[in-house]
Amino acid sequence: MLSHTGTLWQYLGSFVFYTLATVGVIYGVYWYTRKNAGAAAAVAAAKAEEGQIKLELESTLALEPNKNLYVVRNGVERFLLVTSAEGTQLLSRLDNVPAPVEEVVAEPVVDLPLAPKPWYATEPPPAIIQRKIGFGERFVQSVQWLVASRTK
Predict the structure, then answer these.
(1) Cα(8)–Cα(96) distance, rounded to whole angstroms?
(2) What residue segments make up the domains of the chain, in order of their start?
(3) C-alpha–C-alpha distance, residues 152 and 144, integer Å
(4) Which has the closest alpha carbon to 135: 24, 20, 27, 29?
(5) Could you say which of 19, 70, 120, 143 is the most buried, measured as most Cβ atoms within 10 Å of its Cβ?
(6) How far is Cα 136 from Cα 113, in angstroms, rounded to an integer?
(7) pTM, rounded to two decimals
(8) Cα–Cα–Cα angle for 35, 41, 45, rounded to 5 degrees
(9) Residue 94: in which H helix or E strand, if any?
(10) Residue 34 or residue 61, greater confidence
Protein backbone atom coordinates (compact mmCIF):
# COMPACT_ATOMS: atom_id res chain seq x y z
CA MET A 1 0.00 0.00 0.00
CA LEU A 2 1.20 3.55 0.58
CA SER A 3 4.09 4.14 2.94
CA HIS A 4 3.02 7.39 4.56
CA THR A 5 -0.26 8.61 6.00
CA GLY A 6 0.16 11.97 4.27
CA THR A 7 0.26 10.39 0.84
CA LEU A 8 -2.93 8.44 1.62
CA TRP A 9 -4.76 11.67 2.47
CA GLN A 10 -3.35 13.31 -0.65
CA TYR A 11 -4.55 10.39 -2.74
CA LEU A 12 -8.05 10.44 -1.20
CA GLY A 13 -8.28 14.23 -1.50
CA SER A 14 -7.30 14.22 -5.17
CA PHE A 15 -9.70 11.33 -5.86
CA VAL A 16 -12.61 13.22 -4.29
CA PHE A 17 -11.66 16.46 -6.08
CA TYR A 18 -11.42 14.88 -9.54
CA THR A 19 -14.62 12.88 -9.02
CA LEU A 20 -16.55 16.02 -8.06
CA ALA A 21 -15.01 17.92 -10.98
CA THR A 22 -16.09 15.19 -13.40
CA VAL A 23 -19.63 15.14 -12.00
CA GLY A 24 -19.71 18.94 -12.29
CA VAL A 25 -18.66 18.85 -15.94
CA ILE A 26 -21.27 16.18 -16.72
CA TYR A 27 -23.96 18.25 -14.99
CA GLY A 28 -22.84 21.38 -16.88
CA VAL A 29 -23.16 19.60 -20.23
CA TYR A 30 -26.57 18.24 -19.20
CA TRP A 31 -27.76 21.72 -18.15
CA TYR A 32 -26.49 23.33 -21.37
CA THR A 33 -28.18 20.75 -23.61
CA ARG A 34 -31.47 21.02 -21.71
CA LYS A 35 -31.36 24.81 -21.94
CA ASN A 36 -30.75 24.85 -25.70
CA ALA A 37 -32.96 21.90 -26.69
CA GLY A 38 -35.91 24.20 -27.44
CA ALA A 39 -33.85 26.29 -29.84
CA ALA A 40 -32.69 23.19 -31.73
CA ALA A 41 -36.28 21.97 -32.07
CA ALA A 42 -37.40 25.38 -33.38
CA VAL A 43 -34.61 25.39 -35.98
CA ALA A 44 -35.54 21.87 -37.09
CA ALA A 45 -39.21 22.86 -37.39
CA ALA A 46 -38.31 25.96 -39.43
CA LYS A 47 -36.19 23.88 -41.81
CA ALA A 48 -39.04 21.37 -42.19
CA GLU A 49 -41.48 24.14 -43.12
CA GLU A 50 -39.21 25.77 -45.70
CA GLY A 51 -38.92 23.27 -48.51
CA GLN A 52 -40.37 19.94 -47.50
CA ILE A 53 -43.93 18.86 -48.17
CA LYS A 54 -45.81 17.67 -45.11
CA LEU A 55 -48.14 14.70 -44.95
CA GLU A 56 -51.45 15.41 -43.27
CA LEU A 57 -54.01 12.91 -42.06
CA GLU A 58 -57.45 14.07 -43.17
CA SER A 59 -59.64 11.30 -41.79
CA THR A 60 -59.58 7.80 -40.31
CA LEU A 61 -62.10 4.97 -40.27
CA ALA A 62 -61.71 1.79 -38.18
CA LEU A 63 -62.94 -1.17 -40.25
CA GLU A 64 -62.01 -4.13 -38.03
CA PRO A 65 -59.93 -4.48 -34.87
CA ASN A 66 -56.65 -4.42 -36.83
CA LYS A 67 -57.78 -2.68 -40.05
CA ASN A 68 -57.97 1.07 -40.56
CA LEU A 69 -58.79 3.25 -43.56
CA TYR A 70 -56.94 6.56 -43.93
CA VAL A 71 -57.22 9.58 -46.21
CA VAL A 72 -53.79 11.22 -46.43
CA ARG A 73 -52.97 14.58 -48.05
CA ASN A 74 -49.59 15.45 -49.55
CA GLY A 75 -49.87 19.04 -50.71
CA VAL A 76 -52.86 18.93 -53.10
CA GLU A 77 -52.75 15.18 -53.74
CA ARG A 78 -54.92 12.85 -51.66
CA PHE A 79 -54.56 9.10 -51.19
CA LEU A 80 -56.76 6.35 -49.74
CA LEU A 81 -54.70 3.90 -47.66
CA VAL A 82 -55.61 0.80 -45.70
CA THR A 83 -53.51 -0.67 -42.89
CA SER A 84 -53.78 -4.13 -41.43
CA ALA A 85 -51.64 -6.63 -39.58
CA GLU A 86 -50.11 -7.72 -42.92
CA GLY A 87 -49.03 -4.21 -43.93
CA THR A 88 -50.13 -0.99 -45.61
CA GLN A 89 -51.67 -0.77 -49.09
CA LEU A 90 -52.55 2.10 -51.38
CA LEU A 91 -56.16 1.62 -52.49
CA SER A 92 -56.55 4.64 -54.78
CA ARG A 93 -55.57 8.16 -55.56
CA LEU A 94 -58.41 10.56 -54.80
CA ASP A 95 -59.39 13.73 -56.63
CA ASN A 96 -57.11 16.70 -56.06
CA VAL A 97 -58.69 19.20 -53.71
CA PRO A 98 -56.82 22.35 -52.75
CA ALA A 99 -55.59 22.35 -49.19
CA PRO A 100 -57.58 24.53 -46.84
CA VAL A 101 -55.97 27.91 -46.40
CA GLU A 102 -55.45 28.91 -42.81
CA GLU A 103 -56.64 32.41 -42.17
CA VAL A 104 -54.07 34.57 -40.43
CA VAL A 105 -55.62 37.09 -38.11
CA ALA A 106 -53.38 39.96 -37.16
CA GLU A 107 -53.44 40.98 -33.54
CA PRO A 108 -54.54 44.55 -32.99
CA VAL A 109 -51.80 46.99 -32.12
CA VAL A 110 -52.54 49.07 -29.08
CA ASP A 111 -50.28 51.99 -28.21
CA LEU A 112 -50.22 52.41 -24.48
CA PRO A 113 -48.75 55.51 -22.91
CA LEU A 114 -45.34 54.91 -21.39
CA ALA A 115 -45.19 55.07 -17.62
CA PRO A 116 -42.98 57.86 -16.32
CA LYS A 117 -39.57 56.70 -15.16
CA PRO A 118 -38.74 57.07 -11.49
CA TRP A 119 -36.22 59.75 -10.53
CA TYR A 120 -33.57 57.15 -9.67
CA ALA A 121 -33.74 55.31 -13.02
CA THR A 122 -30.85 56.15 -15.29
CA GLU A 123 -30.00 54.68 -18.62
CA PRO A 124 -26.40 53.72 -19.27
CA PRO A 125 -24.69 55.33 -22.22
CA PRO A 126 -24.96 53.29 -25.44
CA ALA A 127 -21.31 52.18 -25.21
CA ILE A 128 -21.95 50.36 -21.92
CA ILE A 129 -24.95 48.34 -23.11
CA GLN A 130 -23.84 44.76 -23.61
CA ARG A 131 -25.61 41.89 -25.25
CA LYS A 132 -26.37 38.75 -23.30
CA ILE A 133 -23.67 36.16 -23.88
CA GLY A 134 -24.04 32.43 -23.56
CA PHE A 135 -22.17 29.81 -21.60
CA GLY A 136 -19.75 29.02 -24.43
CA GLU A 137 -18.69 32.63 -24.90
CA ARG A 138 -18.21 33.10 -21.14
CA PHE A 139 -16.08 29.95 -21.04
CA VAL A 140 -13.90 31.16 -23.92
CA GLN A 141 -13.49 34.57 -22.26
CA SER A 142 -12.45 32.96 -18.98
CA VAL A 143 -9.88 30.76 -20.75
CA GLN A 144 -8.51 33.81 -22.58
CA TRP A 145 -8.28 35.69 -19.29
CA LEU A 146 -6.53 32.74 -17.64
CA VAL A 147 -3.99 32.42 -20.47
CA ALA A 148 -3.35 36.20 -20.44
CA SER A 149 -2.78 36.19 -16.68
CA ARG A 150 -0.33 33.28 -16.93
CA THR A 151 1.73 34.86 -19.71
CA LYS A 152 2.41 38.12 -17.83
Answers:
(1) 80
(2) 1-52, 53-101
(3) 13
(4) 29
(5) 70
(6) 39
(7) 0.34
(8) 155
(9) strand 88-94
(10) 61
